[in-house]
Fold:
Amino acid sequence: MVGTLGAGAAIAGISGMPSEAEAKGGPTEKWPWPYVKLDPGKTAEIAYAEWYRVFCGAAVISSVFGQLREKVGEPYRSFPIDGYVFLEGGVAGWGTVCGSNAGANIVSNMIIGPRIAGPDCEHGAIIGSEMLEWYSETPLPVFMPGQPRQATAIIQTISRSPLCHVSVGKWMKASGYALASPERRDRCARVAASVAFKLVQDLNSWKDGTYVRKANWIPGKDVGITAQQNCTECHETKIPTPPMVKK
Structure:
């Protein structure tokens, strides 16, 4: 009997049939998802601790969705938080977008909604996009955990980029600590916590109707290609030149 049930569950997953959790209001439910205001400091402490379990991206997701599982219930209870552990190291260790930024974009997108109606509509990508800019221009980490795992002073650096390898690389150069050092690990845990703190601040403002867009540019508008607007940080003379639409 157990084997039959297990096989049935496997077939349901392969065929796309909704699981019992999904049928009762799991992750397949339409966006946006309900949100109640959270405490930024508590959220950051959760993210800091969770980094040591599931690393940057999943830690940010867990710090918000974990609390909403208790305060709201579904669809957060069915969301597979730990499945996003692959965001570590700039997505599977490739050093692309920092997993903290990716996690923040997943959270804001599920709570506010997708980018489907143009750059001026209210959607999670606005908070997500501005998180990328904030991350790039802010001396990080800004959050100091109540009980840090490393007593060594963790210096702040400005990445000028939302990319993991740039952010971590600049910090390593400035601090002198290697990638595998406990200091670098604690630095990234604090960065994830800093992002979680900022994310909840922004979501709370959005919930109150007081969120004000801060960035004065739209990604890709001025350079004709999806971009960070700071290409020279890495590419210098090798920046691709896209064909521009003739007006």
Residues 1-23 have pLDDT under 50 and may be disordered.
